Amino acid sequence: MDILFHGVRGSTPTAHENFLKYGGSTTCTEILHKEFQIIFDAGTGFQNVSIQKDRPTYLVFSHFHYDHIQGLPFNYEIFDPSNKVTICSGLVSSKELREVFVRAFQPMYFPIPLVDTLKNLKFVDFSIVQEDMAKLCVLETIKLNHPGGAAGYIVEKNDRKVCCFLDHEYGQLEKVDKELISSANNCDLVIWDGMFLDEELPPKKGWGHSSIEQGVSFSDATNCKSLAIAHHSPARTDEQLKEHSNNLKSDKVFFAYQGLSHKL
Ligand SMILES: [Zn+2]
Ligand SMILES: [Zn+2]
User: Fold this and answer.
1) 147 alpha carbon to ligand 1 midpoint, in Å?
2) Is the pLDDT confidence value at 249 over 90?
3) Which residue of 17, 112, 124, 180 lies most exposed, with the fewest beta carbons within 10 A?
């Protein structure tokens, strides 16, 4: 399966010249397998997702902060009624999920009533999606430490395992961290929230994000095969990210960039 990074920026898009190499689109990660397509979150990177017609497409939300939902109406393929997309979240029921998007894209914030317009989007409870997908892959959810809550996800298929842990504040809730470590043990890829540096963390306690250095510690603690740092700070330039990447004290940790296709 291919892991496609369509948006790796956190919080807000960046479109200036010093941010183009790692990319300015907000978070959207696709897991593309010949039998299914899973898309984690619809930040502005969602506009570059190609919705597959020959396999089921699941759009799975971690939570509903703007950087994770704002791209939903800007993928023009989603307006094609023949593109059927199942939407779910491990965080809320299908009814609550529908209400979130009705509210987020009501006329005060968006020109058309999006949910009523897109009849091809099917809101389904996460547990039903899990059952539905059971013959294709194992999809699990796990609690993350983030203001308002966030759901992490684990996908397993044919001895390949990917963990998507955006957005998460590491090092604050021991029980949550322990569960994340055990769920990511020996996995092939962890997608990590590397919004901050260690030195930036103290005044940002409670903001719900981890550091790049904590990603390295997490990769050691889990013995995962690789860990992709994502959800880059909108203040972090290409030059700075490159420098942090060169200084990484791990050869299995790498910085995700927009457009990266990672094969597993
Ligand atoms: Zn975020
Ligand atoms: Zn968030």
Assistant:
1) 11
2) no
3) 17
Centre of ligand 1 to C-alpha 54, Å, is: 30
158: closest CA among 192, 141, 135? Answer: 135
Q: What is the mean pLDDT of residues 67-90?
A: 97
CA of 144 to the centre of ligand 1 (A): 12
pLDDT, tens digit (0-9, with 9 covering 90-100), for 141-170: 999 999 999 999 999 999 999 999 999 999
135 Cα to the center of ligand 1, angstroms:
31
**R_g of the chain computed on alpha carbons:** 17
pLDDT given at position 258: 98
Ligand 2: centre distance to CA 195 (Å): 11
Would you say 88 and 125 are in contact if contact means Cβ atoms under 8 Å apart?
yes
Distance 149 CA to ligand 2 centre (A): 8
Amino acid letter, 21: K
Compute, in angstroms, the gap from residue 56 CA to the centroid of ligand 2.
27
Token pair of 197 as six digits: 């540096």
pLDDT given at position 31: 98
Q: pTM for the whole thing?
A: 0.98
Q: 10 Å Cβ neighbour count for 251?
A: 7
Please determine, for residue 134, whether its predicted confidence score (pLDDT) is greater than 90: yes
CB within 8 Å of 57: residues ≥ 6 apart: 36, 37, 39, 51, 83, 84, 85, 86
DSSP secondary structure string for all residues of 149-205? -EEEEEEEETTEEEEEE-S--TTS-HHHHHHHHHHTTT-SEEEEE--B-GGGSGGGT
CATH superfamily, domain 2-263, is: Ribonuclease Z/Hydroxyacylglutathione hydrolase-like (3.60.15.10)
Task: State the chain's mean pLDDT as an integer.
Answer: 97
- Domain definitions of the chain by residue range: 2-263
